[in-house]
Each structure stands twice: as C-alpha cells, then as structure tokens.
Amino acid sequence: MVTRNEVAKHASRASCWVILYGRVYDITEFLDSHPGGADVILRLAGQDATEEYDLVHSPALLEQTLPESSCLGPVEDSASSSSESSESSPNSVAKPAKTPDEPPPLHTLINLDDFERVAQRYLPPNAWAYYRSGADDEITKRLNRQAYQRVLLRSRVMRNVERVDTSTTILGHRSSMPLFVCPAALAKLAHRRGECAIAAAAGAEGLIQVISNSSSMPVEEIIQARTRDDQTFFFQLYVNTDVEKSKTLLRKVERLGVKAIWVTVDSPVMGKREADERMKARIQSSEQSGVLKEGQQVQGIARTLSRMLSARVTWDDLGWIRETTSLPIVIKGIQSVEDAVLAYENGAQGIVLSNHGGRSQDTTQPPLLTLLEIRKFAPFLLGRMEIYLDGGIRRGTDIVKALALGATAVGMGRPFLYSLSAGYGEAGVRRMIGVVRQELETNMALVGATRVSEIVPQMVNAKPLERDLVDGVKL
Q: pLDDT tens digits for 302-355?
C-alpha cells in the first residue's frame, strides 16, 4: 500500500509517479517515449491522473504500454482515487458547462449539421475545439464544403427507380454505401466507448471503418467491438520517427485482421489549429501550475499528438512498408494530380484525395477540385486504381457528385465524432448514418440511378468548379 504523501514526493523527471485506477505507477522510464511528450505527464506527476487519462485512453492500454514492474501497488484509500484526480491540466479536457436540458431526441436530428450543433453544445469545450478546428483562417475547411455546392446535378427522368441499391465494394470488400469512416483521433473525448461505439455502429450499418493511428481505444478492443463476423477494418498509419515502431505496429494490425493500410502523408508537420491552441492557452492561463515559461509555445491537443510523427517520409518508404506487410496500401492525403500519378507509379492500390479536412495547411485546394485535375490531366487513372476523397461531405448529393466525377467512395470523419457526443454513442452514429443513407437513396433515385455503377459524369455539371483548375500541368 502506497500513501498519497509518498506519491506526491515523486513529481519530477528524475522520479515520476502517478496514480491510475487506484494503483501507483512509476513511469519515469516511459516519459520520453510517451507519444504526447513528457510534459503532458509531468504536469500530473505525483498526482492522481485517472480522470485525465480516462478521458482519452482505455484502461487496457496500461497493460500494453507499461511493464508489470512499473506498478508499485495500490494506493492508500484507492476507492476514492478516481474521484480525487486533478481537476484540470493543460492537456485536459475542460468539462462542459452543466445544461438543465437533456440532449434532443435522436429522431429530431434530420441532417448532419444538426449533429454538429448538438456536439458544440454538449462536448467539453476543448474537445469541441480539437474536433472542429481547421488550420489558420479555416479557408480550406470552408472551401471543402463549398466545392460541392459549385457542382450541379443533371438528373435523368422517366426511369424506374423504385428500388435503389447503394451497396458497393472498397478494395474488394463489400460496403452498404460508398461511404467509409475516416480515421479520426481521440473519439473517446466524445463518448466513453469512443472508436468502439463507432465500430459497433459501422458493423450494424454495413460500413468499413479506417482505424486511426491515434485512436483512444486499443485496436484490439475496436475490432472486438464489431457486430458482424465479416466486418471490415482498415488501418491508418502515420510513420513514426522510430520506424521500427511503425513496423511492429504494421505486423500487429495485420495479425489482428485489418484488410488494408492507409498511409497518411498530408501532415509531415502539424498545421496551426488556432481554435485548439487558443483553448489550450485559456486552460493553462487558469492554472498557476500551467504558466508558460518565457518563449514557450502553446500547443493544443493536435500538436501534442504529432510529436512522434516523422517529417522524413518519402516515396521510398513504401519499400519497407511493403516488406513489412502484405496488405494493400492506400496513400491518404493526395492533393495534386502529379502526386496521384506518382502514387499509381509506386504501386498504391488506392489514393485518398484529402487535405486533412482543412486541418493541416490552409488555402489548399478542395479534394473535389483535385479529382477534376485527375479527370483532365490523368484520366487514365480512373478505373486503374481506386480513388477516394474526404473533407466537407455532409449530404447525400455530395456523395452522388463525387461518384459521378470518378470517386470510388468517400469518407467522413467529424460527423462520426459529433454523432457520438451528448451521450448518444452507438445509437447516435447509427442515426447519423441512417440520415446519410436516406439522402443518398433519395438523390440516386432523383438523378436517375438505381445502382452506384449507374452514377455517371453526365449526371453533373462541374463547369463552375472547373474554372478553378490549374493550367499547365506537366506529367
């Protein structure tokens, strides 16, 4: 039995103890290997870190991360340990203001903007800031959505559209819609089951989930949360600064049964997400222990998570990735036709046209415009490799437009996080998917298509968006 007074004596880099779930851990040796950096832990050194840890991690992660020898035993009065944890830390999630009303019934949420408004009201403030923030002035974040509004539908009529089938395949795996769950970090900030709740909902609705490299739940738990034996998962890879760790991770997820690796390449460094960083600074300013040293930069959740990501990734890295895993490789984060061609030439089975949801670099062009670049300058890619895109998709009409212009499927990230919030969990995610499904079915019928394969370029007028195409591309 370890007393709290004894734990409090070990609050430095030289000797760092914390209390987690009623037990005392010596994590001194773990400090420098923590993905979020040592400072995040040191601010809770000598204290009960259970509440802060539990906001973004699963208890099972302790066994996977820390050696058994690091556990020093139970803390005295362990029954009350989790309730006495630090009220706040610079990396903590501020608790939402108490609201007298219950969240609205799910059946009253009829579009994806409704889910976002609920999330804004009920998410902890800096969880909301982390989820919704974009880079700099958030111009790209807005342009991603506006691009779809600049493509018009050319519907065909007098067709029998009594039965509409939205099913398709992604890398040969069946999906009930040309829609997948984008890898989005830290879903547990929105709901205690985090990515596991998304997995359960995706399975029930027949969708494929791309598991985030920065998931708040262990990959094993996410996969175990599946609701169908044949449920498909892909895995997102951020190349670690320690390549051997990435190789170990690739072998692990392949053993667990994921079906493809999505290598994310659009964030070699983390963009400046001002809403996230402003919220972090506000929390730090409210704590005497969180006063910044002169010249020290405020870092939000996003920058904290990015410390272990390699900025040295090149096309050559696909070599060791292929040597490590036999799974298909998708390159996520293509933002130009030139790189789309390079991905094809380097043997990628698919690409995701993405600017990271406007979260990395501001004023980059929307993925839908990049798809038009491919149509104009490298049309041979269409049909030779699978092309997906994400960013700004909020309507069934958006999916129809993307498919008409050559996309195999599209992904959404933020809406899945928003639909978890307010305690909705799996039910919220299923309701959100249902809203999208109904919109897709309706608009496929209205445009004159009963199957995904019947959605063709002639069903859209992309001229307003084509005016923004770059000139003089040389391949």
A: 455 555 677 899 999 999 999 999 999 999 999 999 999 999 999 999 999 999
Model pLDDT for residues 58-100, shown as the tens digit of each residue: 888 788 788 889 999 999 874 444 444 444 443 444 555 455 5
Is 101 part of the annotated catalytic residue set?
A: no
Burial class (CB in 10 A: 0-12, 13-18, 19+), 209: buried
CB-CB contact of 205 with 211 (8 Å): no
Which of the residues 10, 57, 191, 356 is marked catalytic? 356
356 is catalytic: yes
CB hemisphere CA count around 167 (13 angstroms): 9
Which of 26, 48, 266, 362 is catalytic? The answer is 266
Element (H, E) at 144: helix 139-149
> What are the φ/ψ torsions at residue 255 (nearest 5 degrees)?
-60, -35
Active-site hit among 238, 344, 388, 424:
238
Rounded Cα gap, residues 391 and 263, in angstroms:
17
What is the C-alpha R_g of the chain?
Answer: 23
Number of Cβ atoms within 10 Å of the Cβ of 208: 25
Enter the tokens of residue 318.
């696909």
Tell me, rounded to whole angstroms, the distance of Cα 222 from its chain centroid. 14
Cβ(332)–Cβ(313) under 8 Å? no
Tell me, yes or no, if 21 is annotated catalytic: no
Pairing of strands 173-175, 233-237: unpaired
Q: What is the pTM of this model?
A: 0.86
Which residue matches tokens 């006063």? Answer: 291
Query: 407-440 pLDDT, tens per residue?
Result: 999 999 999 999 999 999 999 999 999 999 999 9
DSSP string, 17-46: EEEETTEEEE-GGGGGG-TT-HHHHHTTTT
CB 405 within 8 A of CB 359: no
As given in the structure block, the two tokens for residue 229 are 């034996």
